[in-house]
């Protein structure tokens, strides 16, 4: 069989072409992050390493929580890393420079020291920071819109850029708290920013993610939806910063509002997941004549637990290679269903649709072939057929069982 790059097919890019733009973007973002950390080191005293540790500590579980939203069709790791690094590098350094310049040359000279800081935090910083964080999402809409298949994708990329920004920003807050008030003040700041409201920045930028996702998957609202999303992000951010100056009562009101919005976002993701499942049930049977999918395989593909069991069974039967083949099959089938979603909404060019469809079908065929060709793992009691179709019909039923 011809060799293909499954990742390239799934991501819709040309195989073998080095991601020059991605490498350049990661390099620039990394240099900006180093520069921002250098500013913290130069401006702080002994609290930098404490702040760095506390800021990084909650990031892995928060990333895992964000990625759990999109288990049917996981986003490319390289794109997720780029979004995170953009938030931690370009957005942070840009916000540091522009917010400082705004304070020194605009708000403080006009409104005075105290009011100037309030105006900058409530009105200036949200506009600057959300624009810089949202820039990477607008870039994806412009350059990689086919990578955004729905609201869940927009929310995940927004969460990654927001978590990167929040991590770097928290280093500064924790460092200043430790240097100014010692362990007691540091504890209070960590409880507020690290435990009570760890998702504030991802939640703000999620509004931009929703707008960008709508524009990527609909024919209308190409400008209005992203602009409305960015405005919503700025308003939420401004409300939070403004409430912070009114004490715990104001923060409590905004925190309840943000919690309600978070609940709505979870509902949106759940509804969209059910919609994806319905499309799997509707469109994949159309390809039954190819032999690549059976009704039993569709039942496996529509359920996350069944998918997990299928991957586990594949590894048991044929080892890691068979497990990878099963993953490629599942992801290609899901992408095929999402491709029909774009066609339904009129945002898929017919020629691109046909090319993309054929490449995904080819990947499904190659993945199934690779699975069936994988030498079985020697066992005293070898397992039977697929757990979702032990006697068939299934494209993954081993040849020896088909003859029985």
Structure characterization notes:
The chain is an all-alpha fold. The protein folds into 2 domains: 6-12 and 19-245, no CATH class; 288-402, no CATH class. 77% of the residues lie in helices and 0% in strands. It is built from 14 helices and no strands. It has helices at residues 6-11, 20-43, 48-56, 59-67, 77-111, 113-143, 151-196, 200-217, 224-244, 248-283, 295-301, 304-344, 350-373, 399-402. Helix 2 (20-43) packs across helix 5 (77-111), helix 7 packs antiparallel against helix 8 and helix 12 packs antiparallel against helix 13. The protein is elongated and about 75 Å long. 40% of the residues are buried. The model has no long low-confidence stretch (mean pLDDT 89). InterPro entries: PrsW. Keywords: Membrane, Transmembrane, Transmembrane helix.
Chart the SSEs and their pairings:
Layout (H helix, E strand, L loop, with lengths): L5 H6 L8 H24 L4 H9 L2 H9 L9 H35 L1 H31 L7 H46 L3 H18 L6 H21 L3 H36 L11 H7 L2 H41 L5 H24 L25 H4 L2
Helix pairs in contact: 2-5, 2-7, 3-7, 4-7, 5-6, 5-7, 6-7, 6-8, 6-9, 7-8, 8-9, 9-10, 10-12, 12-13
Please report the distance between the alpha carbons of the first and last residues: 27 Å
Low-confidence sequence ranges? none
Roughly how much helix do the residues carry, as a percent range?
Answer: over 70%
Mean pLDDT: 89
The outline comes out as elongated
Enumerate how many helices there are, as a single number.
14
Find the structural class using helix and strand composition: mainly alpha
In N-to-C order, the SSE pattern is HHHHHHHHHHHHHH
Rg calculated over all Cα atoms? 24 Å
Number of domains: 2
Would you count the extended β strands for me?
0
Q: What composes the largest sheet?
A: none
What percent strand? under 5%
Transmembrane segments: 20-42, 48-69, 81-106, 118-143, 155-175, 195-216, 223-240, 252-271
Region (Disordered): 374-404
Biased composition (Pro residues): 375-390
Organism: Actinomadura algeriensis
């Amino acid at each position: 069989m011809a060799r293909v790059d499954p990742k390239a097919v799934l991501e819709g890019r040309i195989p073998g072409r080095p991601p020059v733009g991605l490498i350049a973007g990661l390099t620039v973002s990394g240099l900006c992050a180093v520069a921002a950390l250098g500013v913290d080191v130069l401006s702080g005293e002994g609290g930098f390493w404490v702040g760095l540790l506390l800021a990084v500590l909650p990031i892995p579980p928060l990333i895992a929580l964000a990625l759990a939203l999109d288990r049917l069709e996981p986003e490319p790791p390289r794109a997720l890393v780029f979004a995170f690094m953009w938030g931690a590098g370009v957005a942070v350094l840009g916000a540091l420079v522009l917010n400082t310049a705004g304070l020194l040359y605009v708000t403080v000279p006009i409104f005075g020291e105290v009011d100037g800081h309030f105006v900058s935090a409530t009105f200036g910083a949200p506009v600057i920071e959300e624009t810089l964080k949202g820039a990477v999402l607008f870039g994806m809409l412009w350059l990689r819109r086919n990578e955004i298949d729905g609201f869940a994708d927009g929310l995940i990329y927004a969460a990654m850029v927001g978590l990167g920004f929040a991590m770097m920003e928290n280093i500064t807050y924790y460092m200043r708290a430790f240097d100014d008030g010692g362990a007691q003040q540091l504890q209070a700041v960590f409880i507020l920013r690290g435990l009570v409201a760890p998702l504030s920045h991802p939640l703000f930028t999620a509004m931009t993610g929703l707008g960008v996702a709508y524009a990527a998957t609909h024919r209308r609202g190409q400008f209005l939806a992203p602009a409305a999303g960015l405005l919503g992000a700025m308003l939420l951010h401004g409300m939070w910063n403004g409430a912070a100056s009114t004490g715990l009562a104001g923060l409590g009101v905004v925190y309840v509002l943000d919690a309600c919005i978070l609940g709505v976002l979870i509902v949106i993701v759940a509804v969209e997941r059910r919609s994806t499942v319905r499309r799997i049930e509707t469109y994949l049977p159309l390809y039954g004549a190819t032999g690549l999918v059976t009704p039993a395989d569709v039942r496996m593909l529509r359920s996350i637990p069944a998918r997990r069991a299928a991957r586990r069974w594949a590894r048991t039967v044929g080892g890691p290679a068979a497990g990878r083949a099963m993953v490629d099959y599942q992801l290609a089938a899901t992408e095929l269903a999402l491709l029909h979603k774009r066609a339904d909404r009129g945002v898929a060019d017919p020629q691109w649709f046909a090319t993309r469809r054929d490449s995904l079908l080819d990947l499904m065929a190659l993945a199934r072939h690779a699975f069936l060709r994988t030498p079985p793992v020697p066992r005293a009691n070898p397992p039977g057929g697929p757990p979702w179709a032990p006697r068939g019909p299934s494209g993954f039923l081993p040849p020896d069982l088909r003859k029985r």
